Hints:
The complex is a heterodimer of chains A (about 350) and B (about 325). Chain A is an alpha/beta fold and about 350 residues long. Chain A contains eleven helices and twelve strands. Chain A has helices spanning about 55-65, 85-95, 105, 115-125, 130-140, 160-170, 190-205, 215-225, 240-245, 250-260, 300-305, and strands at about 5-20, 25-40, 45-50, 70-75, 80, 95-100, 175-180, 210-215, 225-230, 235-240, 310, 320. An eight-stranded mixed β-sheet of chain A has the order 6-7-8-3-9-10-12-11, sandwiched between helices. A four-stranded antiparallel β-sheet of chain A has the order 2-1-4-5. Chain A is globular and about 65 Å long. Chain B has about 325 residues and is of the alpha/beta class. Chain B has eleven helices and twelve strands. In chain B, the strands form two sheets. In chain B, strands 6-7-8-3-9-10-12-11 form an eight-stranded mixed β-sheet, sandwiched between helices. In chain B, strands 2-1-4-5 form a four-stranded antiparallel β-sheet. In chain B, helix 8 (about 190-205) links the parallel strand 7 and strand 8. Chain B starts with 5 loop residues before the first strand and ends in a 19-residue tail after the last strand. The chains are: A alpha/beta (about 350), B alpha/beta (about 325). At the A-B interface, helix 7, helix 8, helix 9 and helix 10 of A face helix 8, helix 9, helix 10 and helix 11 of B.
Amino acid sequence: MSNPPLLEVRDLKTHFPVRGGVWLRSVATCKAVDGVSFELRSGETLGLVGESGCGKSTLGKSIVRLLTPTAGQIRFEGADLAPLGRRQMKPIRRHLQMIFQDPAESLNARHTVGQTLEEPFIIHGLGSAADRRASVAGLLEKVGLPRDAAHRYPFEFSGGQRQRIGIARALALQPRLIICDEPVSALDVSIQSQVLNLLLDLQREFHLSYLFITHNLAVVKHISDRIAVMYLGRIVELAEAEELYLQPRHPYTRTLIAAIPEPEPQARRLRIAATGDLPSPINPPPGCHFHPRCPFATELCQRESPGLRETAAAGGPSHLVACHYDLIPAAQPSAHGAPRAAAAS
Amino acid sequence: MNDPLLRVRNLVVGFGSGGSIARAVDGVSFEVRRGQTLGIVGESGCGKSVTAFSIMRLLPQPQGQILGGEILFEGRDLIQASEAELHQVRGGRIGMVFQEPLSALNPVQTIGAQLAEVLRLHKPLTKAAALAAAIPLLGKVGIPSPEIRVREYPHQLSGGMRQRVVIAMALACDPSLLIADEPTTALDVTIQAQILELMQSLQRELGMAIVLITHDLGVIAQVCDEVVVMYAGQIAERGPVEAIFRRPAHPYTRGLLASIPRLTTPRKSRLPTIEGSVPGLQEMPPGCRYENRCPFARPECRAARPPLETVAADHAVSCIRWRELPPDQPAVRAAV
């Protein structure tokens, strides 16, 4: 590891009080992000995948400091962002941008596209009015929108085009890292591939780094270099993208992969690898959060929470997994159809 | 028994009033056989949900109107059916499942009461007997401890459990057809797998046919026997699922299949795309509606609406050039 990572998250926790009763006292804590650590290298895409409620969006928002973390460090280019206030964050925000799922909601409907794209330059006091207009025109071209888009309003555009506007806004100040929170989930398939291509092209051109948050396992595999799998506020597995799909080591990762409906009628293999629902992060199960749904769970899993540990051979690329056991690598996800007898003990 | 259970012929559905009626569904025909699963797939605005709502005669009134065609279900034309007949069909012979289970359930009634209501609408049961009958129904859709759950309210259940309740309601009166409109779109992928598996096992057990409406070609590939691919209110292609995925004849189907990232797609490669976007309902061209996005378009594609041509048994395509297209696109289904 020659270069220091662009982003280094250490033991990050973002907890929310759950208020109840007459006086709205805090009655419980929702541990949306509960001790997450990872690194993101310059020019890399780290995929962050998980089901709803696993804390992936909270993690993304905590990193750009739209949310204040409860504990832990967010080292971005060496400086810890976690304790910074609004004003201290402002100069850093230029380098750290975010793209949201629903471009219709994240764009100001009363601003023309030109005004929206000009705003970052105004906020950061960059360039003259003429410079800004030139920059806006350049941005529109970069994301494949016509020049006259600057004079139009968001409602005049389709969903895919609006997402392009969102991407242009994130690109405006030449950031180093963009947090993409489900950027293609609201788009139709034919539009989704256009936006994914655009993100890939822009990454190559500007040497961007992405933290790509999604629930879509095929999309995340396509766009990521490495992938982190989250479950109930914690990372359960983190590995190179290919490796994660070829040799998933965590039972939850295997479950997710087995559940992907592949567009291949020849390979009908939808399998229910995990029974039951996602537990709530307000009152997660003790020990390994996944144990109530895990076909391999033992008494140890109910008692002790497994930390992330390295499973790769020395010198090989890192493959972290948070499971007490070494599942047989050869075990295909089909092995999960096995009865849940082991979980009973 | 060779008669199809449902036969939709030349369905035309319009929205709007007076001079400006937009045809959201324009001349759609397909059949559903007993015990089979038909998938209707397409992107937003292609008319797939409008087709489903038309079958159940649940179009928003007064804007949505069926302008023509036939919907033959178990021997009668639902378009001509009276409101009383429709009451018997909906929830009786045809069960319905929608995308968002929370909006399909009444928040202030227990799920037992809601199930009992469906049962009593269609069967001569007392309140107590209907409530008792609700418990095994919940058990059948895989809800643990149904005798407790039956007294709970929708908000006490998770999304997957709510969708199970909606399925239980749809199946309460042993329908011969289940219409499911994006039943798993709002659910997580592991829960989606559970619900699809549940629908399939109930189908095997009860022998009902399913019309599954979805935008997800993966879901279609996993559970359907036949597929209708819709584009801009019309059928682009329809046929057996194997044929459509192996040898897609319509350029739109090919484009769709090529543009989905798969686990086998080379990582970080550029995906094939379908350029441009669907024409608006008011500005539909007289010829092929896909012409403006089609890489194989010729001037003659603009002249007239392409008829559905037979590719093979049960496989039809609405493209005048399907015979001349290159056999298959490379890189699409290369590695498996």
